[in-house]
Structure to design on (228 residues):
């Protein structure tokens, strides 16, 4: 079985300050991990993915995430928030080599204030 | 342009009136899937298809049907909609079911059943 827990349902930051969105996962096998972003009234877009290569993964729009097996975490970070980053973010797990079943976290709503 | 399209984008209907939400992709993807998104629950998989004529249940299949007669199309059918199926629905596709390839999401269909 696999699952993800997003530790914060809402995060609020000021523009220009760092962003940290936390995600812990549970998986019996080697997981693949993803972060997707959903802007208001839009579909989901892939930000980045980890599939057992480098543990620090860089994505689009300056986001990155680090896979930490010992902590079963895959936190999403960005050094400096921009107003356009305001959106809902989903941490997602699937089994590497185990097909394409995605298990989604419940989402973190990121608010960016001036 | 590579994309997943869904129609309609918005639908209000009454209990018991059969409806179909269409999904089409132009990327020659093998794998297609339907999700529903509800507040606080993230996205949950309804049905998926690994290829033409191959479909299987996801986590929440009750009350839904699907078919995959052509590679590009994967319609979602609600034979007798009920208010608890009021939700935001996403279709997604990826290159293959065999590995954790990126899934591309459609723009979503917001369904209200009264």
């Amino acid at each position: 079985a696999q699952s993800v827990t997003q530790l914060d349902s809402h995060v609020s930051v000021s523009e220009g300050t760092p962003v940290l969105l936390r995600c812990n996962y549970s998986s019996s096998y080697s997981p693949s991990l993803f972060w997707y972003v959903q802007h208001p009234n839009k579909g989901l877009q892939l930000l980045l993915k980890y599939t057992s290569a480098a543990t620090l993964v860089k994505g689009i729009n300056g986001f990155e995430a680090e896979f930490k097996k010992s902590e079963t975490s895959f936190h999403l970070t960005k050094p400096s928030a921009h107003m356009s980053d305001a959106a809902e973010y989903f941490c997602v797990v699937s089994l590497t080599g185990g097909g394409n079943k995605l298990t989604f976290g419940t989402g973190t709503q990121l608010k960016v204030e001036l | 342009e590579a994309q997943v399209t869904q129609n309609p984008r918005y639908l209000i209907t009454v209990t018991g009136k059969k409806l179909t939400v269409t999904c089409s992709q132009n990327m020659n993807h093998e794998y297609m899937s339907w999700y529903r998104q509800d507040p606080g629950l993230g996205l949950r998989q309804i049905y998926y298809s690994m290829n033409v004529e191959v479909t299987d249940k996801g986590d929440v299949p009750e009350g839904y049907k699907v078919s995959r007669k052509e590679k590009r199309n994967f319609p979602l059918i609600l034979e007798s909609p009920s208010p608890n199926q009021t939700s935001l629905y996403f279709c997604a596709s990826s290159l293959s079911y065999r590995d954790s390839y990126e899934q591309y999401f459609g723009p979503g269909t917001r369904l209200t059943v009264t």
